[in-house]
């Protein structure tokens, strides 16, 4: 289990202050919530803090089991070397002063190892990544957990294996997305402005990467097939120029059939929208992981992504994979800037049929 030669953690170990580190994208942050649930169950008396990138704060800001979110702002580096170093030093000082008993580093960056090493925590758990097989990484952590079987595990399961040295079981913990009452009130008001008073379906056709998207024409066809007097269609996207342009194009192909809230909601407000939807249909994206965590019926369209690691986590979802309809390139071979939409192999009628199955239940 460990590449350092640690003493095993005694069963009596009862940390009062825990820091969890993960420096990744929005969806990744949501998939750390089962670890938070496991730690809360095992150490009900402990304060749990999370260190993450500033832009991903909205994913965890309403989580009831987190005491404090500490962040690294990726824009610090734009302020010049001296200011950047000051920010990093202030963060380290705060973490040391906090006096954590336990640091769990789920990240693979050097920066996360430096913070872990200098945290002063007695127990410091990390992963034994092959690319980090060196003395510094080993010294930074008191316990290293093997990543040998990570290729066979979902990202949630990978994260939970970090708890092995604490003898915490790595199953049975759901993901969770939280939002406040005011988030839902704002979302309801926004829906009312668009005259959406009936049950609705959320469709998220966009991703920051085009290779994860279905064709606009098929999305429009899906909207046209599902929109009716009883059910409204709400399109969502990030406030990104390319994503907003894609939504505009889809709306132009099915005029009057859907409304767009693209770029108009914060992530917690979007969570409240998805939570109250009859159905969520979307590509591999953070909102898809949110739908799964909220237990909203979810149809997830996937292309050449590592399906085992990134499929929606939960029981109330269905994956439609382009690889069932046409050969796909290996996920690691993809140029993420490609304009190719690998999901185009997915037939429109298959998605319509899957949606109707959920709606008829």
List the helices and strands and how they pair.
Layout: E1 17-21, H1 26-30, H2 33-42, E2 47-53, H3 57-60, E3 68-72, H4 81-98, E4 102-105, H5 110-118, E5 123-128, H6 135-140, E6 143-146, H7 155-161, H8 181-193, E7 200-204, H9 216-226, E8 232-235, H10 241-253, E9 259-260, H11 267-275, E10 279-283, H12 286-293, E11 298-302, H13 307-310, E12 317-321, H14 348-360
Parallel strand pairs: 1-2, 1-4, 2-3, 4-5, 5-6, 7-8, 7-10, 8-9, 10-11, 11-12
Helix pairs in contact: 8-11, 9-10, 9-14
In short:
With 361 residues, the chain is α/β, with parallel strands linked by helices. The protein has 14 helices and twelve strands. The protein has two domains: 150 residues, 3-Layer(aba) Sandwich (Rossmann fold); 180 residues, 3-Layer(aba) Sandwich (Rossmann fold), CATH 3.40.50.
- The number of E-state strands comes to 12
At the fold tier of CATH, the topology name of the largest domain is Rossmann fold
Mean pLDDT over the full residue set: 95
* Straight-line N-to-C gap: 46 Å
The top-level CATH class of the largest domain is Alpha Beta
Number of domains: 2
Write out the strand line-up for the largest beta sheet, numbering strands in chain order. 3-2-1-4-5-6
Helix and strand succession? EHHEHEHEHEHEHHEHEHEHEHEHEH
Instruction: Give start-end ranges of low-pLDDT stretches.
Output: 1-5
Which CATH architecture of the largest domain would you pick? 3-Layer(aba) Sandwich
Largest sheet: 6 strands, parallel
Q: Supply the helix-strand structural class.
A: alpha/beta
CATH-assigned homologous superfamily of the largest domain: Glycogen Phosphorylase B
What is the radius of gyration?
A: 22 Å
Oligomer: single chain
Number of helices: 14
Query: What overall form do the CA principal axes indicate?
Result: globular
Bin the helical content. 25-40%
